[in-house]
TrEMBL record:
SUPFAM superfamilies in UniProt: Cytochrome P450 (SSF48264)
Taxonomy of the source species: Bacteria, Pseudomonadati, Pseudomonadota, Alphaproteobacteria, Acetobacterales
UniProt: heme binding residues: C421
Family indicated by similarity: Belongs to the cytochrome P450 family.
Stated name of the protein: Cytochrome P450
InterPro entries named in the record: Cyt_P450, Cyt_P450_CS, Cyt_P450_E_grp-I, Cyt_P450_sf, Cytochrome_P450_Monoox
Length: 473
C-alpha cells in the first residue's frame, strides 16, 4: 500500500495522438464535516454524497459525521476485505438496507446471511456463469438492436430524450429477455418496470435525519406507495414465473436455470415465494446497477469526441468492420477500460453498508454494537492515499503497463470476497457490447452537461435527468 499522499491537482496527462487528455468529470467537492452536514440538511434531497466530509477521503478508518448509533467509514483495503468477508459473522448487511428491500426481495441472496445465503449463492452462481452469459449474448444483441431502432427515430426528428430513462429501459429490456425470455414491451414486464421506478423514487433506504437520530435496528414503516409497488412487482414476477412452471422445462433462460437448480444432489428446490425473491433480485440488481453505470459512461463520452474516435478505431480494428460478436468482447480493451474507469468514479452501488451486531474492534479501532460500518466504493475509489489524480477520468490507468498504480483492494465496484457481485461477468459483457455498438452507430450530445451532479440514491445517479440527442455517426 502506498502511504504517500497523492497529488489531486497533478498536471493533467498530455493529450494522446487522437487529441484526447484525461479530465475531471462532475462531482461535488467535499467540505469539512459540520458544513457538509448543514449542506446536506439544507438541500434536503437525501443525497449522502454531499454528507461525506473531506476527511473521509484521507483516513483509513474513522467516524462519518455525527450520529447517535455511530457511523464508521472503513477505507483501508485489508479492513475492507475483513468486513466484507466477515469470517466471524459479525457484519451482516445493514438493518437499514435489509428493512428497505425486504418487502421487495424478502430474505433473498442480496440481503441474507449465513447458511441461507450460502445455499442461495450455490444456486445463483451457475445461473450467471460465463457459459450462461455466452448463451444470453444473442438476447443482449436483440435488446440493443431494438434500442438502435428507437434512437434512429430520435435521430430522424432531432428530439431530445432522457439518457437516464433510455439506459433504464435498455438494461431492463435485456434483463427481461435474458432472465424471462420476454421483452419490456410485454404488459407484465412493463408493469414491473413502472412499479420499480415508483419504488426507486420513494423507498426510504436512508434518510439523513434517521441516520443521525435513530438507534440501530429502529424499524421505520415503509410508505404505502412503496409497499404497493413491491406487491405489484412480486405479483407480476409471479406471473412470469408461472409461465415457466406451467411450461415444464421448455425455456432456455436464467429463470429456468434458477428453477431447476439445487444446491446439493437431492436437495429441496426453492419454493414459489423464494423463487420470486431471487428473480426479484436479478431484476433489481441486474438492471438498475447497469443503467446507472451506462448513464455515466454515455454522459462522459458525449462530451469527449476525441476519446470516442479512439473507441471507434478500436471497434473497427477488432471486428474488421463486421458485427460485434461474443469473442470480440475481451479484445475491446479501451471500451472495457472506459467502463471500468466509469465504475471507479461513479460506482453504481455507492455504499456497501454493514452493521456490527456485537461490540468489536477493527485493527484496534473500537466499534460499538449497532454501529453502521460503511465500506464506500465511492470514497475508496477517490481516496487520496490509494489513487494518483483520484478525480481525473483516465481509462488508461487500467492498462497492464500501469497496473502497479492500482492498490490491491482499492477498486471494488463489484464488491470483494465471497459476496462479490454474482453478475459481474454479465454486466461487463453487456456494457462492453452496448458501448461499442451504440457509439459506433451514433454521435451522442448532451443538452446541458454543466448541470450534471451525482447523488447517491438506490444507485449513483445524476440529481436531475440528463437530456441527450443522437445523430447517425
Ligand atoms: C455495473 C453493474 C453492476 C454492479 C456495479 C454491481 C455491483 C454489485 C455489488 C457491489 C454487489 C455486492 C453488494 C454487497 O456486498 O453489499 C453486488 C451483488 C450482487 N449482484 Fe451485482 N452489480 C452489477 C450488475 C449485476 C447484474 C447484471 C446482476 C445479475 C444479472 C447482478 C447480480 C448480483 C447479485 C445476485 C448480488 C448478490 C451477491 C451475494 O450477495 O452473494 N449484479 N453487485
Amino acid at each position: 500500500m502506498t502511504d504517500a499522499p497523492t497529488i489531486e491537482d497533478a498536471p493533467a496527462r498530455r493529450a494522446d495522438a487522437a487529441g484526447w487528455a484525461p479530465f475531471i468529470p462532475p462531482y461535488t467537492p467535499p467540505w469539512p464535516a459540520l458544513p457538509s452536514l448543514v449542506r446536506a440538511m439544507l438541500r434536503g434531497d437525501g443525497d449522502l454524497l454531499s454528507l461525506l466530509p473531506r476527511e473521509a477521503y484521507h483516513m483509513k478508518i474513522g467516524p462519518l459525521g455525527y450520529s447517535r448509533r455511530s457511523i464508521v467509514v472503513v477505507n483501508e483495503p485489508s479492513m475492507v476485505r475483513h468486513v466484507l468477508a466477515d469470517p466471524e459473522g459479525i457484519f451482516p448487511k445493514s438493518d437499514l438496507m435489509v428493512h428497505a428491500l425486504e418487502p421487495l426481495i424478502g430474505d433473498s441472496i442480496f440481503v441474507s446471511s449465513g447458511a441461507t445465503w450460502r445455499r442461495q449463492r450455490k444456486v445463483i452462481d451457475p445461473a450467471l456463469s460465463m457459459m450462461r452469459v455466452n448463451r444470453a449474448f444473442p438476447a443482449m444483441e436483440a435488446g440493443c438492436a431494438d434500442a438502435e431502432s428507437e434512437y434512429d427515430r430520435h435521430a430522424e426528428h432531432g428530439t431530445p430524450f432522457s439518457l437516464d430513462l433510455a439506459m433504464s429501459h435498455l438494461t431492463a429490456d435485456i434483463i427481461c429477455r435474458t432472465v424471462f425470455t420476454t421483452t419490456l414491451h410485454s404488459k407484465t414486464a412493463h408493469d414491473v418496470f413502472d412499479a420499480f421506478t415508483e419504488f426507486e423514487r420513494r423507498v426510504a433506504q436512508v434518510e439523513i435525519r434517521r441516520l443521525i437520530w435513530d438507534k440501530a435496528w429502529t424499524r421505520a414503516p415503509q410508505k404505502a406507495p412503496v409497499l404497493e409497488a413491491c406487491a405489484t412487482i412480486r405479483a407480476r414476477i409471479g406471473e412470469l414465473l408461472d409461465t415457466h412452471l406451467d411450461a415444464g422445462a421448455s425455456f432456455d433462460d436464467i429463470a429456468q436455470q434458477v428453477i431447476e437448480a439445487r444446491d446439493d444432489v437431492g436437495a429441496k428446490a426453492f419454493t414459489r415465494e423464494e423463487l420470486i425473491d431471487q428473480l426479484g433480485v436479478l431484476f433489481l440488481a441486474g438492471h438498475e446497477t447497469s443503467a446507472s453505470a451506462l448513464t455515466w459512461v454515455f454522459a462522459i463520452l458525449a462530451t469527449q469526441p476525441a476519446l470516442v474516435a479512439r473507441l471507434r478505431a478500436e471497434v473497427e480494428e477488432v471486428t474488421g468492420g463486421g458485427p460485434i460478436e461474443f469473442h470480440h468482447i475481451k479484445r475491446l480493451t479501451l471500451t472495457r477500460n472506459i467502463f471500468r474507469e466509469t465504475l471507479r468514479l461513479y460506482p453504481p452501488i455507492t455504499f456497501l453498508p454493514r452493521v456490527a451486531n456485537e461490540a468489536t474492534a477493527l485493527n484496534g479501532y473500537r466499534l460499538k454494537k449497532g454501529a453502521l460500518v460503511m465500506v464506500a466504493p465511492w470514497v475508496l475509489h477517490r481516496h487520496r492515499l490509494y489513487w494518483k489524480d483520484p478525480n481525473r477520468f483516465d481509462p488508461d490507468r487500467f492498462l497492464p503497463e500501469r497496473e502497479q498504480e492500482i492498490t490491491s483492494g482499492a477498486y471494488i465496484p463489484f464488491g470483494i470476497g465471497p459476496r462479490i457481485c454474482a453478475g459481474a461477468a454479465f454486466a461487463t459483457i453487456e456494457a462492453t457490447l452496448l458501448i461499442a455498438r451504440l457509439f459506433r452507430r451514433f454521435d451522442w450530445t448532451l443538452d446541458a452537461p454543466e448541470r450534471i451532479r451525482p447523488a447517491a440514491r438506490l444507485t449513483t445517479r445524476p440529481v436531475e435527468q440528463v437530456m441527450c440527442r443522437v445523430r447517425p455517426a
